[in-house]
Amino acid sequence: MMRDRFLRACRREPVDCTPIWLMRQAGRYMPEYRKLRERYSMLEIIRAPELALEITMQPLRSFDLDAAIIFSDILPPLESMGVEVQFVKGDGPTILHPVRSGEDVERLRVPAAEEIAPYTQEAIRLASRELADRLPLIGFSGAPFTLAGYLVEGGSSRDFALTKKLMYQEPAAWHSLMDKLSQLVGSYLQAQAGAGAAALQLFDSWVGILGPADYRDYVLPYTRRAIGMAQGSGVPVIHFTTGTNGMLELIREAGGDVVGVDWRIDLGVARSRLGEGVAIQGNLDPMALLAPLPYLRQQAAELLRQADGHPGHIFNLGHGVLPATPMANVAELVDFVHTQSSRG
Fold first, then answer.
1. Beta strand 85-88 pairing with 92-95
2. Which residues are bridge partners to 204 per DSSP?
3. Looking at the annotation, which residues are catalytic?
4. Which of 140, 143, 153, 190 is in Cβ range 3.0-4.6 Å of 204 for a Cys bridge?
5. Is the CB of residue 256 less than 8 Å from the CB of residue 278?
6. pLDDT tens readout for residues 295-313
């Protein structure tokens, strides 16, 4: 049951207790990770399968998690389209030559699946062998819209003015860009499943800056295409977004076996709006992991109450683990969720 707990929840089947894994469960809050980062850059680690494997395994040695997620990032796959990506200390990921016109879109190539971040595909092969029958491994990709936002803005943005400008003023270029990105994402997710990933997650972290009408017209068809391609691999697909509580029904329409929600909505309300045909993942505020343990337990208990024992709940954060998170708090959360939700 432990090996299957997470996958059974993805399929909305009964489980012995609520499964838990955490976005960014491998990362800057762990001393082992920080030690490696003193020697290697982010891209050096991602491009070295053995190092990516090591970081993938680090949280599994410290916590009783129900799934592993491969260590990587959403931007390196863009390199296979001819895009130059850098991770600049203090500024985060940067696209050296942003996509701002139809001509820029035309220059983007659509690669074959085996060309897309081959080092991550190899890391998945290594990790799936290492995990064997112990735990399922999650592969992931950025969603077409979130990748488009990086490509057009050249990095992070508060208002995504350049992205929306391209969308509104050059719709043909926008749709061509999203068509290429949906092919990239769908192929990449399929390749990860082929390499051994037992589940896949699509991260659309920035799509909440859109209103429902724009999402329906400019994004939904491409997200649905990428998810459909991924589901063709036969493994569960988690569709994760943030800031989208005003259009959960459209997120559900775009697809996914599991919908991940952020902490800005009651889990029971989210479930009622999504319907019974989909599992739900979430949705603890990551800041709760920085709080005193009594508060952390209280918030976790409240989320379990909202889930109300329905099949198809995967406990997670509404976004990633923050760098200042104490490891003891992560251990407490994982153990608390398992104990409090035990059905044995």
1. antiparallel
2. 241
3. 24, 28, 37, 73, 150
4. 143
5. yes
6. 999 999 999 999 998 999 9
